[in-house]
Structures are given as C-alpha cells and as structure tokens.
Amino acid sequence: MENYKVAVIAGDGIGPEVLAEGIKVLKSVAEIDGSFSVEFTEFPWGCQYYLQHGEMMPQDGLQKLAAFDSIYLGAVGYPGVPDNISLGGLLLKIRRGFDQYINLRPVKLLAGAPCPLKDIKPEDIDMLVVRENSEGEYANVGARLYPGTPQEVALQTGVFSRKGTERVIRYAYELARREHKTLTSISKGNALAYSMVFWDEIFKEIGAEYPEVVTHSYLVDAASMFFVKDPQRFQIVVTSNLFGDILTDLGAAIAGGMGLAAGANLNPEKKFPSMFEPIHGSAPDIAGQGLANPLAAIWSVSQMLEFWGQKEWAQSVLSAIGHMLLEKRVLTPDLGGKAKTDEIGAEIVRLLKK
Ligand code: NAD
Ligand code: IPM
Ligand code: MN
Hints:
two-stranded antiparallel ribbon; 2 domains; alpha/beta; binds 3-isopropylmalic acid; 22% strand; Isopropylmalate Dehydrogenase
C-alpha cells in the first residue's frame, strides 16, 4: 500500500489552527480511499522555536525534511521576531534549498465565494498563476554600506538566470498547451531594462516551440488593473517572484479572500519534497480565537493530492469546498458565517463521506 510521508510545519499564529483542519481532511481522504495511507510528522519550528533556540529550525533542518514526500506548512512570522529573520530562516530557506522553483497559485472564484467586483460570474475568474519561486527579486543578494551614517546605502539585486527564467516559463507553456489555455506573461520591461527585458525575450524565445499556445504579455501595472477590471483575460499567468507574490494577494481579494487562497511550491523533478501551504500569513490580528478560515489550507491539501497523482481526490476536496460555499451553512466570519475554524474540517469530511 502506498504510504505518503508528510512533514508538518504548522508554524506561527493561525498556522496551527488552519493546518489541523487540513490534516483532518487528508486523514479522512486516506481512510475513505483505503488504497493509500498518510503518515504525519510534526516539526515545532517557527518563532517560538526561534525565541528558545536562536534559530528558526535546526542546522540540519533541510536534511530532516528531505526524507518526506511533501511538506505541509501553515504560516511563518510573528511580532517579536523580525520578519526577514523568521521568513529567511524557514519558509524561504525551504523554497530555495529544495529548489521549489514553481509556485502554483490558483485564482479561481468558486460559486458562492464573495467577490468585491461588479457583474462578475464565477467562470470569469479562473486563472492559475505560475510564480517563479527560486530567484528573481527574492535572490537575497545585496549589501548595506555605511550603516547608520548619512551616506548609508542599501543594495538589493534581482537575479534572473537563463536556467531559472527558462524553466518557469517552459513549465507555464507546457501547462497552457496541455490544458488548451492562453498564457499571459507579466513583467516590467519598460522600467527594468535588464531583468525584465531578458524575461520578455525568453518568453518569446520559448514561445517559438509552442506555436499552438495563444500568448499575451502585460506590464505588471496594467495587469493589476486588468485583474480588477477584466479578470476574464487571464488563464495561465507566468510571472516573477515578487510580482507573483503581489498579484496573488490581489488575486485572493477578487476570488473569495485570503481564507481561500492556496499555493503549491513545487520541485517538479521530485528530487526534493514539494511544499503546500495557504498563501496567507500568520494573521496575528485573529490568531488563537478560532476565527481563521482553514479553507485555503484545505485547498492546498487538494493541490498535494493532485501532485501525488490522486487526481480524483484532489477534485473531490475542491468540490467539497465549493459545496460548502454554496450551502453557506458552515462558514467562518470572513465568509459571512459564524462557524469556528475547527468546525470547517469536520464539515468537509462529512461532505466527502456523502
Ligand atoms: P496575513 O496574510 O497574515 O493577514 C492579512 C489579513 O488577512 C489579516 O487581516 C488577516 O486577519 C487576514 N487573514 C489572513 N488569513 C486569513 C484566514 N485564513 N482567515 C481569515 N482571515 C485571514 O498578512 P500580514 O498581516 O501581512 O502578515 C502577518 C505575518 O505573516 C507577518 O509576519 C508576515 O511576514 C507573515 N506572512 C507569512 C506568510 C507565510 O508563512 N506563507 C505569508 C504572508 C505573510
Ligand atoms: C507568500 C509570502 C512570502 C513571500 C513571504 C512571507 C516571504 O508573502 O508566500 O506569499 O513573499 O513569498
Ligand atoms: Mn505573499
């Protein structure tokens, strides 16, 4: 019997609250199916751990994680530990260390989910953002010169390698071809004359190998405007690390909110484990009160199942989320309901059993 080994890093704030629900769902999927099992191992890493040990995870943290099929992550970062230390020491370390160079983030408005845009039908917002996840603006190359003096200088260099740019763009073309979707590249070549002009050139170059894929290219400022004014334009979207970060919070805002936005950090070659997470943070403003919506964390379970090849289950979990949104019986306050975080997983399980 197939046994999937999942490393659980619940992390900070609402991370543990939302992951508990996702774990409930994944356990019950395995139970109902019967042909595979899932084994969870929890790692207590995060800001609390940092305050006790002076590091976000142990030195050999990546080695410990390497043996797992997947990583399930809640959220990282909390007041009391500087964000650059907490994120750089855990989440970003894993994304880079495990070469999780694809970040897949669906921006899909399910029927029943709230949408702040006027005259929008669910089918009008149905995109998949392919975010570069290993370099670009997040390459962590830079310097601080003359600290604390009037001449102080901060340098932060974007790193766009041919390998890194080609592989994410190729991945997006493959996806668009397989799914018969259009592909839109979002960049900023009019101002970033080195990195983004390079990005645009590679987008065209690789496009020559995919003549059947219909493409568009937008500048990121205009694209942000069209996300709001005309989201129908977008199907598969490929973009850089920072632009993808920003556009997918905007995407969350038009497709039901942060409580519904999931993301998969993939190492497509499976040389290293991939990591699945809601895209929201630790939400200190609502942590510990049972107010957090765990549907994003549950949606990322669907992405995990999909990556494992359990495609029917991936679809069933997503359908169960859709069902809940239509029924409106058991929903957290961000979606207009009164339910607590820990009622959501149980309701999804009930729907899956039906
Ligand atoms: P956030 O995503 O934590 O919260 C933004 C807003 O959305 C808050 O009002 C919050 O209450 C709401 N929200 C988020 N998730 C929700 C959910 N599941 N249900 C209901 N409401 C939800 O972003 P932030 O406040 O900018 O960041 C807080 C901390 O999290 C910071 O330390 C930041 O660096 C970190 N962060 C971590 C990750 C991650 O681990 N992947 C992602 C983003 C931010
Ligand atoms: C995300 C988060 C992270 C990112 C932060 C916490 C470093 O905002 O996953 O969207 O910018 O990638
Ligand atoms: Mn983000």
